[in-house]
């Protein structure tokens, strides 16, 4: 059963079009279940009708032309209930409706299961028999399991099929294809897509139209010959250690690359209009799919050999391709399966209009980086056919998490108005730069920034930041291929400290692990967010920790504005050990003759254990800073980088709000500084609630700071506390955001956050 499910899924995944995928499903299901009929009905998004899209057993000629209304027939009953319907005699059921022209009148037994993707019913998979008999539990379970496995494949095939036949260079505007993701960074971007991808990875190569067939074919043949030479050299190098049979394997590889085999297929794809890399991907993955479906284990293993050959050809092709910077002649919308910070680091910032990532969530590090740079971003667009979006006109709606491809002139005009309104808001924010963040009734709130790059300093000061609430030291570690030396770290930290002096600069010790990896210090774990990360790593590697501490303190010489923050604290013992080491480092630097003062030390409150020991921790340190991103993640048991559960990650969940309020309540009167440095602090709605709770400092991206200041300066503390009291009574996260939106509208401050027209789309 499992092997059958695997083979069907693999075949469908490899299909090149939606009709082909659906035909595979009905053909294979009918045969494997020995059913007389198998059909697939898909929901038409515009009419909500169930359209017969593919069938084996009924009249295939009417597929795509006949349909059932949303309240008509057994198929729609399955869809409405979102559960299976299994009948011995379908004709006597009150919901039975004969679909003219299908020839189903002679079939009595009926089993229909819904095809559900992300809680949305995409369609119904149906099997039927002529005789009256109920399908047994095993058959029903098989169909349910298959439907669940294929739902995502069908959703992607639907999305891909929608634009598969459009030529990006010649297709007229006006299709307005819409795809849903999750908001990553607010704002709107209108422009052309550029698909980026990691090197030598066949799976993520996009399709790209070409008319210069001769050049692409020449490049392909040059790459092919380079791989042939590599194989011959490898064969000659180790031939003396191999038997005749083993040496013959290299000859097999050379034959696979022969013009009459894969090479010929790639050339054919190029002549059909795809560039060499895209053509190679199509051919290699199609052959891999065929090998994977074979029953013989030896033949299945050949799929890995084929992938290796494909990757080698691709590597040589990419050596000749223009580098990533050369691809950007104008500001563009960057699209990728999984965008990373290193990818963005290779692209000039002035060439990035917007970002779209298939993987990740609104609190992925790429999204956080995008917010810091003010780039409209959508994450977690799982059904987006990204490989077909190179040089395609796009609109990115970072407010609502939507992407539009081939937008109409009317849609572009609508979104251009939003862009224009955003520009006016930015001009309004500019007038607030030198004004204090103070409520209408005189309450003063300090606004700091989160930084990670040298460039952040000037940008943050220009936005009116009063200090750095979080400097992420892992960033300079991540852009190197080795640990930076103590001397190199001194230079890096000095830039941050000097740039903001005499204002305070909070430097966090190295916070790696989880989703923050160093290529030269790999941490491979089954549950990385529950594993070796943050303070746990650095206390286990004192050479790393002490080099950091010494560098931080040296960098603060004569400035005296350093604060040190410890991440991922889960118990008092960790803080005691770290404090002892910091004092030791301070004493050593002092003895070396540096003019330094013992820095203030604080801890991050970002896991539930710390929330419940916050009073004991406050007795040891000078300040506490809540990392709302991780605290939300751990309280809700939601991986913030997983787009499948992105909707569950919500900092306005009542449990999160109660935990945040509890922290303030526990340390009231203890004399410790209390701040929030997670993304919630940069959300104007979150900033109001955090201020009302009693947090002294909010630290955020420089892009978010003007919005927060504008909102705080236009309400009173009394209004903020009223809002807090109202939402603390609520039991649903959605109710919290809806209530806050209403209260902010009534206070006439919602207009300060986003253009008015964003609510219309």
From TrEMBL:
<comment type="similarity">
    <text>Belongs to the PEP-utilizing enzyme family.</text>
</comment>
<dbReference type="InterPro" id="IPR040442">
    <property type="entry name" value="Pyrv_kinase-like_dom_sf"/>
</dbReference>
<feature type="coiled-coil region">
    <location>
        <begin position="217"/>
        <end position="244"/>
    </location>
</feature>
<dbReference type="InterPro" id="IPR003018">
    <property type="entry name" value="GAF"/>
</dbReference>
<keyword id="KW-0175">Coiled coil</keyword>
<feature type="coiled-coil region">
    <location>
        <begin position="408"/>
        <end position="435"/>
    </location>
</feature>
<keyword id="KW-0808">Transferase</keyword>
<dbReference type="InterPro" id="IPR006318">
    <property type="entry name" value="PTS_EI-like"/>
</dbReference>
<feature type="domain" description="GAF">
    <location>
        <begin position="17"/>
        <end position="164"/>
    </location>
</feature>
<dbReference type="InterPro" id="IPR036637">
    <property type="entry name" value="Phosphohistidine_dom_sf"/>
</dbReference>
<dbReference type="GO" id="GO:0008965">
    <property type="term" value="F:phosphoenolpyruvate-protein phosphotransferase activity"/>
</dbReference>
<keyword id="KW-0460">Magnesium</keyword>
<keyword id="KW-0670">Pyruvate</keyword>
<dbReference type="InterPro" id="IPR023151">
    <property type="entry name" value="PEP_util_CS"/>
</dbReference>
<dbReference type="InterPro" id="IPR029016">
    <property type="entry name" value="GAF-like_dom_sf"/>
</dbReference>
<dbReference type="GO" id="GO:0046872">
    <property type="term" value="F:metal ion binding"/>
</dbReference>
<dbReference type="GO" id="GO:0005737">
    <property type="term" value="C:cytoplasm"/>
</dbReference>
<dbReference type="InterPro" id="IPR036618">
    <property type="entry name" value="PtsI_HPr-bd_sf"/>
</dbReference>
<keyword id="KW-0762">Sugar transport</keyword>
<keyword id="KW-0813">Transport</keyword>
<dbReference type="GO" id="GO:0016301">
    <property type="term" value="F:kinase activity"/>
</dbReference>
<dbReference type="Pfam" id="PF02896">
    <property type="entry name" value="PEP-utilizers_C"/>
</dbReference>
<dbReference type="InterPro" id="IPR008731">
    <property type="entry name" value="PTS_EIN"/>
</dbReference>
<dbReference type="Pfam" id="PF05524">
    <property type="entry name" value="PEP-utilisers_N"/>
</dbReference>
<dbReference type="Pfam" id="PF00391">
    <property type="entry name" value="PEP-utilizers"/>
</dbReference>
<dbReference type="InterPro" id="IPR008279">
    <property type="entry name" value="PEP-util_enz_mobile_dom"/>
</dbReference>
<keyword id="KW-0418">Kinase</keyword>
<keyword id="KW-0479">Metal-binding</keyword>
<keyword id="KW-0598">Phosphotransferase system</keyword>
<dbReference type="Pfam" id="PF01590">
    <property type="entry name" value="GAF"/>
</dbReference>
<dbReference type="InterPro" id="IPR050499">
    <property type="entry name" value="PEP-utilizing_PTS_enzyme"/>
</dbReference>
<dbReference type="InterPro" id="IPR015813">
    <property type="entry name" value="Pyrv/PenolPyrv_kinase-like_dom"/>
</dbReference>
<protein>
    <recommendedName>
        <fullName>phosphoenolpyruvate--protein phosphotransferase</fullName>
        <ecNumber>2.7.3.9</ecNumber>
    </recommendedName>
</protein>
<dbReference type="GO" id="GO:0009401">
    <property type="term" value="P:phosphoenolpyruvate-dependent sugar phosphotransferase system"/>
</dbReference>
<keyword id="KW-0963">Cytoplasm</keyword>
<dbReference type="InterPro" id="IPR000121">
    <property type="entry name" value="PEP_util_C"/>
</dbReference>
